[in-house]
Amino acid sequence: MTDTELAAALAATAGRIALEIQRSGLLSGKPMGDAADKAVNQFLVHAIRQARPDDGLLSEESKDTEERLGKERVWIIDPIDGTREYSEARSDWAIHVALAVGGEPALGAVGLPGIDLVLRSDRPKPLAAAEERPRLVVSRTRPAKEAVEVAERIGGELVAMGSAGAKAMAVVRGEAEIYLHTGGQHQWDNCAPVAVALAHGLHASRVDGSPLVYNEADSWMPDLLICRPEWAGRVLAEVAALSA
Q1: CB 165, CB 193: distance < 8 Å
Q2: Which CATH class is domain 3-120?
Q3: What SUPFAM superfamilies does this protein's entry cite (predicted)?
Q4: Does 135-243 carry CATH code 1.10.275.10?
Q5: pLDDT (tens digit, 9 = 90+) per residue, 154-174?
Q6: For residue 143, what are the CA distances in angstroms to 138, 140, 149, 161, 190?
Q7: Staple 106 to which of 101, 179, 185, 225, CB 3.0 to 4.6 Å?
């Protein structure tokens, strides 16, 4: 099994585990989200350590150690990306399984269990036709100020959505043109989405245009831009103008 096949299989199985917990009726709200985070994390960590014992691992739900820093290959996972949306039984949550090699997002899979879909970096599909008026996906609870201002400058439409993975995959799937985030994330929030987005021919970078680097000692990533390539230059220029 290739690394990407493994990532996709893990994302799919993890999604089924999360849905079983959700549909059992035994828990609801935050306790259900916490239980799913724990169960999915246990499954993913065990499966990766069994299948790729020599690789490093970084997970939102496991204590981080310095061991991964000496590894060339590091799996970066988010068991439930969008726990709030999961807890509310919405569909805009995701499961992230990615492999960073030499700090680059080499491959990944993003599961969208709520719509029974796994997007993967080894099966890219042609981008759908873009809307003339660009759509920017933003947080449904706290849209980034810069994204709102850029949307106004380029005549864009804001589309509120849940998790980071769901927003990034909306661009991959042709439901939006731009995902601009300046509120800060962690490496597990975007490594798998970035790997999938890049494989599908999208632009992905920091908002100053610099590359996204993974397996850093500090898991914090201040900002992110995933968009159709034809919008990258314009959006980066508008963000630079806002900070000038």
Answers
A1: yes
A2: alpha beta
A3: Carbohydrate phosphatase
A4: no
A5: 999 999 999 999 999 999 999
A6: 5, 6, 10, 10, 17
A7: 101
